[in-house]
Amino acid sequence: MPAHSQLLADLRCSLAEARQRSGRSAIGQVTFGLPALDEPLGGGITRAALHEVYAAGTVDLAAATGFSVGLAIRAAQTRPILWVRQDFIDAETGRLHPPGLVELGFDPSRILLVRARDAQGVLRAGAEAARCAALGAVLIEPWGEPRQLDLTASRRLALAAEASGVMTVLLRASSRRDASAARTRWRVSALPSQALESNAPGNPAFSLRLLRHRGGLAEREWRVEWDRDRQSFQEPSAFQEQSVFPARAASTETFPDAAPLSRSVVSFPADRPAAAGAQDSGLRQAG
Amino acid sequence: MVETQGNALRLVGCDANAARLGLTRGLTLADARARIPDLVAVEADSHADERLIDRLAAFCDRFTPLVTLDPPHGLLLDITGCAHLFGGEAALLALIAGYLHRGGLAHRAAIMGTPEAAHALSRFGAGGIVPVGDDESAIAPLPVAALEIGAEAVLALSRAGLKTVGDLADRPSSALSARFGEGLAVRLRRTLGREDARITPLRPPPACMVERHFAEPLLDMAGLEEVVVRLITDAGRVLEQRGEGGRAFEISFFRSDGAVRRLLIETGRPSRDVKAILRLYRERIEALADPLDPGFGFDAVRLAVPVCEPLNVHQPSLDGRAVEDEAVADLVDRLVTRFGRDRVLRFVAQDSHDPRREAKAVPAVAPIAARVAWPAPEPNGPPSRPIQLFEPPQPIETLAQVPDGPPLRFRWRRVLHEIARAEGPERIAPEWWRDGPSEPTRDYYRVEDAQGRRFWLFRAGLYEREEGPPRWFLHGLFA
Fold it and tell me: Where does B208-331 sit in CATH, by number?
């Protein structure tokens, strides 16, 4: 047995060296390119892991998608990205529009899109893809709250991602916070952008909330913008935004889910402040 | 069997009993009923007949890959070089006859040198096996109708006293073609075996094919996989000798009751790797909606490689890049096998300015046609195209401040969005050469609501210039 373990250790070493030579960063982290985010997270999020991105509501799914694409771009570098999508999403939030991906700084020719009929197929294709070390990132997009996506399924994805070293992102539009084996969980909602000349909408901006972090980081909120030219997240300048929407900015600080219109789609309990506290403890247990 | 021909119900087919009672094809049903009052008449169903013949053609595939239909109600098999595998022509004929008889089908078969001769002998003669060289003597006593030349020509020939094929055989063909056209002369030559034309098989013969026949029907699924492994190994050896790899593999399972099940496996690049193909095969079997049913067992299994491409073995480069490409291609093959060809896609840019046609998703395993470059985004600008696009666009209710400005607020899916920021219009004219002239012009606006959601709206039609009030649509969502 000791001879075996020695051999295995040697093999692991040579594998690690080979991986380093092939250009993949030896340190398995994906950075956001934004110190305000990277530093508290300890230099970024783990590459070889499963991460969950929740859209705050169905209307915010586009923002969550944009955020995931940004993450995938930073994780994949020049490798292909595999995107698994359930058919129903196309009808509900529109199909993927490659020119829009170009506008975010990603070459759509590098995307492999797998369209699955049901959640079962989505998870199956996702697990299959997460095992393939040659991919840059895997985006898995099931619709709603499928029964099949339980702790076992997410653990399967997480193990596959850990073994292959491919960042796997589970993108969801759901209000339920199931137990899962994900390393981090984010909630993304759209954020008013920094207006350009003549009040035109500016760069994509997101309001991120870290709902859960395996490293023990407490729940936090950030506001970020995606910069296509640097392929990096950056900080939006808050002043301009506040001058345009003082009311909105204030409400976000204190009461993140109370914004009108959109949140009505998501079924949150009526006793909002109490539920927010309960949510925290629930997530801790899930880990 | 009756069918409406003209204004009368006529007999189009009768069984042996009816034939013994003197009924013939073409008789009206009324006449037949007058002769035999308790005649059982059934409406002819030509579609069902066709389906049966198609199934028979698939069944006959196990004897030779070259099978074609010989309408009406006929099949032609090119058994050149196949008969000895079944113990000679007589044995093969007996084998097929046995199958057909057990299936309750009456038939007549002939084995001859050319397809036309076999057609003539089986339909107008007694059928049977005609040794090589005896074609002319076997065909000669048949009526001229056996040449399938049409009723008029048959009538004209019989008026001239030419009643059998033999009567025509010795005539100079120039005189015949002058009177009846070249078609008759050609048909005559082919029927007499003086000229040979191959049949066009229903299923084009594959570039490479290996098969296994079993003495006893095979029931065991594990044993079946072993057979498939051996077939793949054999095919791999054949392909290796040619320096080729297969892009598609078709495995046909011939069941002893005549049913044929075919499985197609496609690969993204040429391959002859037994392990990889076997993995795809297992994936395919597992993904089947209705599993492979051995029934009373399989008679034969065939592996055909319809698409081959040159495959050169190369040493993997040291940087591992090629190995990674290879790994991705393997993954694509596995996904294609499980989910189907049209579910694993790749985006290609299209040469169009219409947002609906700017990009297309094509199967990842399809060959890449001429590549169009993606339009480069404007530096330092925000995205001008949405990340998600609705097809068709979603109608919205709007309130606009000025007729040709962006709306103040709009309602989409029963939710009201107050617009805080807007940019536009970006006018996109329809492609009249594709859409026709009635497609309205679209004025696109990039808008952002008070919560920061970014939308792509458009107004279809211009005020005053185009008819009807302009309507608003939501076409896409920005990140």
Answer: 3.30.1490.100
Number of domains in chain A: 1
Give the A:B interface size as CB pairs under 8 Å: 227
Give the right CATH number for B2-44 from 3.30.750, 3.30.200, 3.40.1170, 3.40.50.
3.40.1170
pTM for this predicted structure: 0.68
A197, part of any domain: yes
Partners of residue B325 in chain A, C-beta under 8 Å = 134
In contact, B87 and B207? CB cutoff 8 Å = no
Q: Which of A89, A92, A103, A252 to mutate to test the interface with B (most CBs of B within 10 A)?
A: A103
Using CA coordinates, name the residue in chain B closest to A59. B453
Q: What is the ipTM of this complex?
A: 0.74
List the 153-212 stretch of A: residues with Cβ below 8 A of B. Answer: 189-193, 195-196, 198-207
| Domain around A58 | 32-286
Q: Across the interface, do A229 and B391 touch by the CB < 8 Å criterion?
A: no
Which H helix or E strand runs over B33? helix B29-35
Q: Is the CB of residue A8 less than 8 Å away from at least one CB of chain B?
A: no
Chain A nearest CA to B418, separation (Å):
10
Tell me which residues of chain B, numbers 397 to 436, contact chain A at a CB-CB cutoff of 8 Å: 415-417, 420-423
Q: How many H-runs (helices) and E-runs (strands) does chain B carry?
A: 14, 19
Half-sphere exposure of A173 (CA within 13 A, CB side): 23
C-alpha to C-alpha distance for B90 and B108, rounded to whole angstroms? 14
Alpha carbons B264 and B249: distance in angstroms, whole number: 6
Query: Rounded to the nearest 5°, which phi and psi values hold at B260?
Result: -120, 130
Q: Does A235 fall in a domain?
A: yes
B277 burial (CB, 10 Å; 0-12 / 13-18 / 19+) is buried
CATH number for A235 = 3.40.50.300
Q: Is the Cβ pair B476, A97 closer than 8 Å?
A: yes
Comparing alpha-carbon positions, the chain A residue that sits nearest to B378 is: A103
How many Cα neighbours within 13 Å face the side chain of B384?
15
Say yes or no: A121 contacts chain B, CB-CB below 8 A. yes
pLDDT of B28 above 60: yes
Residue range B289-334, pLDDT digits in tens = 788 888 888 988 999 988 888 887 665 555 566 777 888 888 998 8
Neighbours of B207 (CB within 10 A): 16
Domain boundaries, chain B: 2-44, 58-191, 208-331, 344-376, 388-478
Nearest CA in chain A to B372: A109
Burial of B24 (0-12, 13-18, 19+ CB in 10 A): exposed
Contacts of A107 in chain B (CB under 8 A): 374
Q: What is the pLDDT of residues A126-145, one digit of tens each?
A: 999 999 999 999 999 998 88
Tell whether A251 is covered by a domain: yes
Interface of B with A in 64-123 (CB under 8 A): none
Tell me, yes or no, whether A10 lies in a domain: no
CB contact under 8 A, A201 and B446: yes
How far, CA to CA in Å, does A268 sit from each of A263, B51, B378?
A: 8, 58, 40
